[in-house]
């Protein structure tokens, strides 16, 4: 029996640390019985002392095991109760901490919601009932947070408003955030909704943030109107510039024709002063023709430009160099050029930019033969193209002025011009969403730089 109980003991509900209790009871019972038998043997006569000495301790051992198992089970139950009590206390402590955190979180949320500027924050359950509403967006409408709290949207808003709000809220309950605008009581509100999910990913509520954007919409409308007015004004100015420059060509042709007639009929009769005055008149007519042509070109940059496409600036530069070949050879100009990139733009207009900048670099080279360096550098999503010379330079005070219409680089007869070439370059680069600038000091040459959008990898 002892061996059997010893074998079954690990399979019982008694915890291992209390097995010693069972063994202790067993040994104590045997010891007590042995003691009793010894006492009886000393004071009384036994018929069969050996037989009684074996049987009675065995019975005592069995009784000890039974008593030990009972006490071990009691200790096990006590231990289990203590463990469960500790677990319950730990769980209670964690619950209290969780409740505290939730209360703090709710307080922060309420504080945030109540101070939500120019709008409101709300929570809606799966029945589209407001369970929490707060914010500062109720000042200009005949509604309050108390009017919404605990109410379903179907019971608050009119049918025309519900036609917009309810489908978006239903979409959010399906797990998709939404953004929409709705006019309420003459005010425009922007709604942003987000689904709130549980651990299983099921949507149990909607977080709705609403903001009064009436003033912003009014400002945007005014800004759009202003942009439209500016575009219309620019279009009228372009039309006026085109018409004015076009209409000026006819009287200018008459002036040129009469000057030619005067030269043919009376050229031999003019004295030295008359010839000088006549040359001034011819030069003035020629300058006027160049200015009109420049004004026409300037006015057509936006309206007559081609579609943007990938442009190989190496090919553009080669074409410009060929067009200016006579001027380059006559001036003895030395032009070095790095490998130029492909950009997005209007090829014809970019050819005009290179032609104007190279012509100026040759024209304002001073007494030495022109030395010109053309280079390009990548800067993120754009290229910086530079045309540097070693010419006479430009005063820093004139760096902004030279890009305006009819503001020439330099005055005087040695550098006569229309003063519109750089203005055309500036307008073309602006059309390409780029910038153009100059770095220069008098007597130290000039470097004109402009930016152009780079060709992306997907472009052909």
UniProtKB/TrEMBL annotation:
The chain crosses the membrane at residues 18-44. SUPFAM superfamilies: ATPase domain of HSP90 chaperone/DNA topoisomerase II/histidine kinase, Homodimeric domain of signal transducing histidine kinase, PYP-like sensor domain (PAS domain). Residues 243-456 form the Histidine kinase domain. It is an enzyme of class 2 (transferase). GO terms for molecular function: phosphorelay sensor kinase activity. It comes from the Archaea. Residues 163-225 form the PAC domain. It catalyses: ATP + protein L-histidine = ADP + protein N-phospho-L-histidine. Keywords: Coiled coil, Kinase, Membrane, Phosphoprotein, Transferase, Transmembrane, Transmembrane helix. Its EC number is 2.7.13.3. SMART domains: HATPase_c, HisKA. Residues 81-115, 216-243 form a coiled coil. CDD domains: HisKA. This is histidine kinase. It comes from Haloterrigena alkaliphila.
């Amino acid at each position: 029996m002892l061996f059997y109980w010893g074998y079954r003991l690990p399979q019982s509900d008694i915890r291992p640390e209390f097995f010693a209790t069972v063994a202790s009871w067993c040994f104590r019972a045997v010891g007590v019985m042995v003691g009793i038998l010894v006492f009886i043997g000393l004071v009384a006569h036994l018929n069969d002392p050996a037989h009684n000495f074996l049987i009675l301790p065995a019975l005592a051992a069995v009784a000890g095991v039974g008593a030990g198992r009972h006490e071990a089970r009691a200790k096990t139950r006590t231990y289990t109760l203590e463990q469960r009590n500790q677990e319950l206390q730990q769980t209670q402590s964690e619950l209290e901490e969780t409740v505290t955190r939730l209360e703090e979180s709710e307080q922060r949320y309420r504080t945030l919601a109540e101070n939500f500027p120019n709008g409101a924050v709300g929570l809606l359950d799966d029945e589209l009932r407001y369970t929490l509403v707060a914010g500062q967006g109720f000042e200009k409408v005949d509604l309050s947070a108390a009017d919404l709290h605990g109410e379903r949207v179907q019971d608050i808003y009119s049918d025309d408003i519900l036609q917009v709000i309810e489908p978006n809220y239903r979409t959010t309950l399906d797990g998709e955030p939404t953004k929409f605008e709705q006019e309420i009581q003459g005010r425009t509100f922007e709604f942003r909704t987000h689904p709130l999910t549980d651990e299983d990913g099921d949507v149990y509520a909607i977080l709705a943030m609403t903001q009064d954007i009436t003033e912003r919409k009014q400002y945007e409308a005014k800004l759009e109107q202003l942009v439209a007015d500016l575009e219309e004004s620019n279009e009228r100015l372009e039309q006026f510039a085109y018409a004015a420059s076009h209409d000026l060509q006819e009287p200018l042709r008459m002036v040129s024709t009469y000057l030619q007639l005067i030269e043919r009929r009376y050229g031999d009769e003019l004295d030295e002063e008359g010839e000088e005055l006549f040359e001034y008149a011819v030069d003035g007519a020629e300058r006027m023709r160049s200015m009109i042509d420049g004004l026409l070109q300037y006015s057509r940059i936006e309206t007559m430009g081609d579609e943007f496409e990938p442009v190989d600036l190496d090919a553009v530069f080669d074409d410009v160099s060929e067009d200016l070949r006579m001027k380059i050879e006559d001036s003895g100009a030395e032009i070095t050029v790095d490998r130029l990139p492909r950009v997005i733009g209007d090829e014809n207009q970019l050819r005009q930019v290179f032609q104007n900048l190279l012509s100026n670099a040759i024209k304002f080279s001073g007494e030495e033969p022109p030395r010109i360096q053309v280079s390009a550098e990548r800067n993120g999503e754009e290229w910086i193209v530079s045309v540097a010379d070693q010419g006479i330079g430009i005063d820093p005070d004139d760096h902004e002025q030279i890009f305006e219409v009819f503001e020439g680089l330099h005055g005087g007869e040695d550098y006569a011009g229309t003063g519109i070439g750089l203005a055309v370059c500036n307008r073309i680069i602006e059309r390409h969403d780029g910038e153009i600038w100059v770095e220069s000091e008098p007597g130290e040459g000039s470097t004109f730089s402009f930016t152009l959008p780079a060709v992306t990898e997907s472009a052909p």
